[in-house]
Amino acid sequence: MTNKYHRLLRPILAAFVGASTTLAFAPYQLWPMAILSPILFILLIHKVSSKAASFIGFMFGLGQFSIGISWVHISIDTFGGMPKAASLFLMILLVSYLSIYPALFAGLTNRLFPTDSKTRYLFAIPSLWLLTDLARGWVMTGFPWLLLGYSQLESPLSGLAPIGGVQLITLAILVCSSAIAWVFIKHKPIGLILPFIIFLSTYGLKSIDWVTPDKSTHTSFALIQGNISQEKKWLPSERWPTLMKFLDLSRINWDADIVIWPEAAIPALEKELPSFLLNVDKAARMNETALITGVVTQNQLGSYHNSVLTLGDTPSGEYNYDTQPRYKKHHLLPFGEFVPFADILRPIAPFFNLPMSSFSRGDLVQDNIVGKGRYFATALCYEIIFGEQVRKNIDQNTNFILTLSNDAWFGDSIGPLQHMEIAQMRALETGKPVIRATNNGVTAITDYKGNIIAQIPQFKTEVLRAEVTSSKGQTPFLTLGQWPMIVFLIVSLVVSLTNFALRRK
């Protein structure tokens, strides 16, 4: 009986360690937890079988994701129309699926590299963690939330973001954590030299200005936070009150260069409101202002798109439904914007028939949205978590990253705050300010170093006014993308697998 309890102790501890990882991210931002958590995880899988390690990894994932993305349940439970038991079951399925990835990491580590060699700690563990993170960000369109690198905005490791993005920061975390774990296991303090060197060098990197301010891009913005109730948003009786609310707030801010409404601010199909949009276009043009808004569009084939539209002072001239340039969302949110296995799932529960849950995707790389002579690389809501997509949409003309969102689905949870943290990382990686307009928060603007320079409170009807200057030049990340991380993966896997092969002989 004692042995049975002993075997359960590590998985139980792993769940608590996984749950504590949430403290590293917004709104808590205790960034050392992102280093401590993997240390404890690595120690917990030490000297156990690969099967036992997989279970420990699964429990770590259950703790991490059940707490870290608990906000997902709010959207399912409050807006999904499902019984409490069914919504909890769906949440358990999601968390269990995401927990497979840390289970794979732990199982493969102990299966392929069971000995306490330097290869295990300096090469195998960091590379296998990265590989499972990459898989989680790709399978079934991907869900790369809670990547450890996002927690390091205030730490010296953030200096790596302009070089190799959030994944390079994650790599540095794992190298540091794994080296410290090796120190505990081998009782050799000399292993602390590597984390010391990494932190010292990245502290120096933070002082490098990869890009410089471009005063010619000085732009005044007015971001409209309508604070529209999600329960009422798509009710026909609320359509015109919603439109008038946004329009009234815009009229008193026509002196801004660019007025921005959030994702799907217009609670109707674009084709249903041609006269309204034409009038808004004329008003903005008369005031020499551009207005950017989220809207749902339908093409000639009948496909729906979650889109971004520019009115007023634009190169395309007067608004014309047939020819107006639009950005069409590429990365769609599973179940929210498209339903996998729809023929099977839609009959099961109303949740799978949420309004606008049958979108089609736009291209991965699209032309920048243009307003008032400014160029915006656009990411709609969920898309801001895909750093490589954002990078590919930035070209030599891009002045700002624009992200429109509606986080009203998630109430007063930690979800919107984590979402903003991710947007800040995109600015730091690319050296481009992020303009983020949302329905009820977090509406904010960052500078090209990822620092929030203007923000308004959540859950209030307000307008964020700010003047922002973009940058000129390119960060190494814009040029190289994830290649620094990929090179490490290739080298470490070659070293690790060579060591594995020699050990098997």
Report on the architecture of this protein.
- The protein has 505 residues and is an alpha/beta fold.
- The chain has two domains: 230 residues, no CATH class; 255 residues, Nitrilase/N-carbamoyl-D-aminoacid amidohydrolase (4-Layer Sandwich).
- The chain contains 15 helices and twelve strands.
- Strands 5-4-3-2-1-12 form a six-stranded mixed sheet. Strands 6-7-8-9-10-11 form a six-stranded mixed sheet, with helices on one face.
- The relative contact order is 0.12.
Which structural traits does this protein have?
single chain; 505 residues; 15 helices; six-stranded mixed β-sheet; 15% strand; Nitrilase/N-carbamoyl-D-aminoacid amidohydrolase
In short:
The chain is an alpha/beta fold. The protein has 15 helices and 12 strands. The strands form 2 sheets. The chain has a 6-stranded mixed β-sheet. A 6-stranded mixed β-sheet has the order 6-7-8-9-10-11, with helices on one face.
Strand order of the largest sheet: 5-4-3-2-1-12
| CATH architectural designation of the largest domain | 4-Layer Sandwich
Share of residues in strands: 15-25%
Distance between the termini: 39 Å
N to C succession of SSEs: HHHHHHHHEHEHEEEHEEHEHEEEEHH
